[in-house]
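User: Second chain of the day. Same drill as before.
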Amino acid sequence: MSLKEVLIDEMRDLYSAENQIIKALPKTIKQVSDDKMKALLTAHLEETKGQVVRLRTIFEHLGKKPTGKHCSGMEGCIKEVTEALEEDEEGALKDAGIIGASLRTEHYEIAGYSAAIAMAKTLKEDEVVKLLTETLHEEQTAAKNILSGATSILKEADAQEDEEDEEEEDEEKDPQEKESEEKSKEDEEEAAPEMEKATTPKTEKKASK
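Assistant: Same format as last time:
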């Protein structure tokens, strides 16, 4: 497999990711209560459509088809957004959860485009580098805008009264929550052996005294 084939594979992954976002973002926008955040996400939806067109142009330039790979990573990011949408919280608290999941989505894209640009530069595909860089800058700006718009939402969420019963944790958890909790515990247990190796020299010295 050549580096060019790796690049094509990476861009097919990005193409799938962008199409998944176009499909999922309208549902997110509908449930955001903050008008400024709703406007930001609406603008980014239109921007994402342009990014798909840009990727198609790149594939035409390279003489390849854009389809052929499903982006499982973006599927996971969108699942996190969906989970935030399904939470019982309302108003700023719900928006706060959406913001967290949306930022992870943006940074996943930033990582993908950064990798693709590095490959295209190595291959001296200047036109590809130019087009991918345009999208990378858009994704970076989108992440900054979401984070900037989050300030007032997070302050409002912090002040928002929790009207739920204080005994909420004693309530029966649904199957999805239980499964997530079990997987989290498994992750922690499987990481434990490596965490034990993470003791710093200073800590070891203090422990030996």
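Residues 3-158 form a domain with the Ferritin fold (CATH 1.20.1260.10).

User: Great, on to the next one.
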